[in-house]
Amino acid sequence: MAIIGIDLGTTNSACGVWQEGAARLIENRHGDLLTPSVVGLDGGKNIIVGKTAKHRLMTHPDATVAVFKRLMGTKHEVELDDRRFSATELSAFVLKSLKEDAETYLGETVEEAIISVPAYFNDNQRHATKQAGEIAGLKVRRLINEPTAAALAYGLHERKEGIFAVLDMGGGTFDVSVIEYFEGVMEVHASAGDNYLGGEDFLEALVGDVLAKNDLEREQLTKQELQQLFEALEEVKCNINAPWPKRLALTLAGGEIEFEASGEWFKTCVTPLLLRVRNPIEQALRDARIPLADIEEVLLVGGATRMAIFRNAVGKLFSRIPSSHLDPDLAIAMGATVQAGLKAKDQSLDDVVLTDVCPYTLGTEVVDPGGSGRAGYFLPIIERNSVVPASRVETLQTVENNQKQLQVNVYQGEHRLVEKNVFLGAIDVKVPPNKAGEETFDLRFSYDMNGLLEVDVKVNSTGTLINHVIEQSPGTLSAEELERSKERLAALKFHPREQEENRELLSRGEHLYSLYLGNERTMLGELLANFERVLDAQNATEITKARQQLKELLDAMEAGPLQ
Amino acid sequence: MTAPWSVLEIAPTDDKREVKRAYARKLKQTRPDEDSVAFQQLHEAYKFACYLVENDLAVQDDTKDEALSSAGPGVSEASHSEPESGDRDPQSESLQDETPAESTAPPDFQYLLDHMDALLASKNDHYFVENWKAFEQDEHLLTEDFRTSLGDAVFARVIAHWKACEEQRNEPAMLRSAVLHYLDSIFGWSNRYYDLLYGYDYSAEDLEFLNDLKDYVPQQASKKFGVKGGAALHIEEERKTGAALFDGEAESLPFVRGLAFLADVVLLALIVYPLDLLFGLSAQYDWPTVIFTLYVVLAPPCEASIWRATPGKRLLGLQALDKHRQRLSLTHAYLRAAVLWAMVGGVTYIDSLMPIDSLTILFAVGVFGVYLQKSKGRFLNDAASFSLVSFARKPGI
């Protein structure tokens, strides 16, 4: 059975399979390699994923959601109509849609997958991703870090030895990895990142600036208007490399807004964000103990790295021109697919080994080593950028006479005080009463290839061993919750694949309807109503004919204003 | 050939390229997702080799090593050639180790190992550092080769013993840190950490105690990190800073204590009432005196019990504890009661001398209130008897 590789992105997702010694990306039901990570509800029963849902973002803002990867690993729930979904569940929908596409392509059921996650995703977020896979009916064989995946795709593509830096700026996250490729070994030296820096933040900056310049508050706008603004600026952002300037005219909160999106304006808006790019790069190089001069190539992946302004900034930082031989949108999915091939022990990948690192420090809470007796200090056990799988042990002791219990708190982060770090879980351990410091116990942290942490506590005097996989952290689900979630979502149906095209056409039409005015709008309304009637009649030949007509018209209308 | 070269299976080299090639070759046999322990060892060896190469220590280190072993009387030869076939367990290795040693080394070598075996087999003798001093009395220890090979043989035995004890859960038989520290000071194991790790197929876990030995200070508490747990977590701070003895519930505490006392009084009254009917106690004593006396006599046993509370306190979830938040001893509980008795007695005595008017009572209540605020709910009699009453903590918090 095939293992598929999935890039579950903030804005777009993609999947592929390792076939005949090469990574092959799979087209979705619309014939695209990229499936937008957008989920919508239709009539409260049907789930819509991908392009169709993306069109509905403006027409049905209350029943459609995007950019939910940002919420992974949090308790936050998204409301669609009157139903509530966690980010994990929404991601599961996207995964399920990708899984179906892969099944159609391969002609067999797919049950195993490799999913990519931002290198800087923490333990909670990784667990949430893994659970999303489980809800979608996929056994997640490995979570692979996105820059590592990109490097894997690149390294195998070019077969060029040396040290390179991978900068991955996707929709929502920015990751940096320093990677060395030699003799078939892909060794990650260090990873660093910013979980809240991506293409969507650039867009936010533009929207914020436009609103501020026109004395508008976000709350004043209807969801439709806001979406319209977002789409217009999204277009500006995507076409940023085109000749300037571009004029924009929008109707917002009853007022007409007109402005010129110039290069200068764009630059001032995003400069604060570009400055943040520097920190993770510096940290990764410092942790890898590799001087800047040793970096042979800078590799860009992720859609946001297409921006010329980003390329310039990176070029200045590394004093060399960054390269992107692979499609920045697809490199990660290709890498995940390579990893799938590795996992399946494909013959053609026999001579390739990948070693990765743990991008953040893991440790426990201890009493002040200085002797004040205060708790709340962080004791690192696995240092960041240690090679994984890593297993480290630290011997700790009681601090109270007759202390009967130990509370082992597990944290992730870099601060010396635990309150500034991310809490991952706690283990309660009984110890026999004894004088303070007489009872010792061994605390072992094992961090596996997937980036998931296991904690063992061994009380030395009694030999009691407690094993604990950190899974009950905020934002992830317990086994029961997972089951409940699966049942709940089983009630929701995807549209049958054959109807998908019609659905997509309708939502595209509705989207255009909201853009046009006057005669065109009336005509479009009639056409759509007519198409719906034909669909209801369920006459296959009629439907094909009407679909063809509508499609031609929509293509023509869509092409018009964009020229 | 020693660490880390034996793990990488190459001769010591100062060519980084070669180290990388060797690592890549070995890595394809030891994939990280298949054998994580072996991978970690390999990766550590790789990093160490890179470190040696980068600092020009690799080859130089080795020639020194070889010079030493060729100069020595065969003993060190044995200890250095053995480790290459590194997958035997330490026990058999120690046997292998000493065979060539017996032939060439002075007879003391075997004598010392026998002495060690005797110590390890004994019940208590191994506990005292004194008994191990036979090692340092041997003049051969001054020769480096003898010391190294003996150290390796002893080390193998220590590990074997350690593992055996662990398997049998026989903690008392384990070697004390003081003994280990002494042996380490003679043989310098902790300085040869990497040699031991890679040369002898010990896992990092076997060698863990070496790291501990480095900062071991004899006769002193080790400076390890401590982890607090459960209720004990907060006391240390409170005792140190003299801060609040109670949590945020301090405001309701005096009130709840009053209720608890009332409940106890009612309970005692229920006991005393039938006695009164039978024996007519109230004819001789007034009710409050009888009940208060009974309270003072009966409360301590209750507070020293596992309830840590009188029935009334128990009912309202209170506990009487000593200042370390441990259960009161019976004597301590009676001290508590005696202090209470003395205080109430004192007030009654003053009252009998000069009747206390309502204004004074009001004033006293005010003072008491302010005092409670200051002491965060700790009554005067608690403070005077080094005890406290607080809400019982749920276990595990």
UniProtKB/TrEMBL annotation, chain A:
InterPro entries: ATPase_NBD, Heat_shock_70_CS, HSP70_peptide-bd_sf, Hsp_70_fam. One of its GO terms (molecular function) is ATP binding. It holds the Pfam family HSP70. The keyword Protein biosynthesis does not apply. Keywords: ATP-binding, Nucleotide-binding. Coiled coil: none annotated. PROSITE patterns: HSP70_1, HSP70_2. Belongs to the heat shock protein 70 family. PANTHER family: HEAT SHOCK PROTEIN 70KDA (PTHR19375). This is Molecular chaperone HscC.
UniProtKB/TrEMBL annotation, chain B:
GO terms for cellular component: membrane. The chain crosses the membrane at residues 255-275, 287-307, 328-350, 356-372. This is RDD domain-containing protein. SUPFAM superfamilies: Chaperone J-domain. It comes from the Bacteria. Residues 66-107 are annotated as: Disordered. Keywords: Membrane, Transmembrane, Transmembrane helix. It is a multi-pass membrane protein. Residues 79-91 have a biased composition (Basic and acidic residues). It is found in: Membrane.
